Amino acid sequence: MHRKLRLRKREDFNTVYRYGKSFANSQFVVYWRKRAPTGTFRMGVSASSKLGGAVVRNRLRRMVKEIVRLNAAKLQEDIDLILIVRKPALSLSYKEMEGSILHVLRKAGLLKGSKPFNGGGKPTTANGNRGKRRNEANGK
């Protein structure tokens, strides 16, 4: 993936985590946030040390970046996104991993022509909070 298309600074990651939205499946979590129009997206990949040694984590990161690079034309523009690799992704083949990544991106509404999945409940913020609850009894 080209250097200009990568999230590299800690403050960029923190901004996406803090102000972005998140969606997940069993293998990946995606955090994303709209940004000023530039005509491209930027992506970062996070793989915890709990997944394995450096060789394993770097291999997963390279695979994820390549999958996103090959499917870049399908992604919406002007977004920052972070893909977090979960432990079940270790056992996936390349094709299964590609399907899982496209699934979580489609679920988040980040593929062109797709809308975000709303699980029937209230939408959550990036940190999982649903916001303030209203007291339904008195309408406040």
UniProtKB/TrEMBL annotation:
PROSITE patterns per record: RIBONUCLEASE_P
- What EC class does the entry list? hydrolase
Alphabetized InterPro entries for the sequence: Ribosomal_Su5_D2-typ_SF (IPR020568), Ribsml_uS5_D2-typ_fold_subgr (IPR014721), RNase_P (IPR000100), RNase_P_CS (IPR020539)
Coiled coil stretches, renumbered: none
Which SUPFAM superfamilies does UniProt cross-reference here? Answer: Ribosomal protein S5 domain 2-like
Q: What is its EC number?
A: 3.1.26.5
Question: Can you tell me which family this protein belongs to?
Answer: Belongs to the RnpA family.
Its biological function? RNaseP catalyzes the removal of the 5'-leader sequence from pre-tRNA to produce the mature 5'-terminus. It can also cleave other RNA substrates such as 4.5S RNA. The protein component plays an auxiliary but essential role in vivo by binding to the 5'-leader sequence and broadening the substrate specificity of the ribozyme.
Q: What is this protein called?
A: Ribonuclease P protein component
- Natural source organism: Cohnella hongkongensis
The organism's taxonomy opens as: Bacteria, Bacillati, Bacillota, Bacilli, Bacillales
